[in-house]
Amino acid sequence: RAIGTNVIYVVAGLSKANTELNAGGLKQHDLECSLVYDETHYIQSSVDLVTDNLLQGSALTFVTLLLFLRSARSTAVIFLHIIVSTMGAFLAMKILGRTFNVPALGGLAFAVGMLVDNAIVMLENIYRRHQQGEDAETASVRGAQEVWGALLNATLANLAVFIPVLFVKEEAGQLFRDIALAISAAV
Q1: Residue of 155, 83, 143, 88 lying closest to 117 (CA atoms)
Q2: Which residue intervals of 38-169 are DSSP H helices?
Q3: Taking the complete model, does pTM exceed 0.90, yes or no?
Q4: How confident is the model at residue 141 (pLDDT cuts 50, 70, 90)?
Q5: Are 74 and 65 in contact (CB under 8 A)?
Q6: How many CA atoms lie within 13 Å of 126's alpha carbon, on the beta-carbon side?
Q7: What sign does the CA torsion over 114, 119, 124, 129 have?
């Protein structure tokens, strides 16, 4: 395969060509072509492992938030926030022509942790104001106004760490670029 091509697509093409060869001219001469090495099994098992960890982590996060926040509504708001941000990250990676691989999914898992932290800080401040007697709309507006600067600074600090990685060249850049892209796009 050529450098930079997707292994899964290449092996799928090889498998299709192999099947056509075996059904065509090779069969007439009692010959058979077989794939000796297929690294897609390793790749797919790695992606499946990370995906399973993301799903298990999401379920654990949901249960933990539900226990500590004691509000299904607040927990649902946080998960909606995570889903929208994750979809945005997927869209950004697709637009930039990047594939979803183990480093990208790992970066996305890291970003989800930051999103949960930010959402909890925001919700807790709104909840505190609501407990002090403000109506829900006023508590939401004032609570968000009080913490948006701190959340923006925390997010920008994280981006300041990961965005420069996008411009690293050679092997290190290839290794960490998808992680940095997933984190940057999600947050």
Answers
A1: 155
A2: 40-69, 72-95, 102-131, 136-162
A3: no
A4: very high
A5: yes
A6: 18
A7: positive
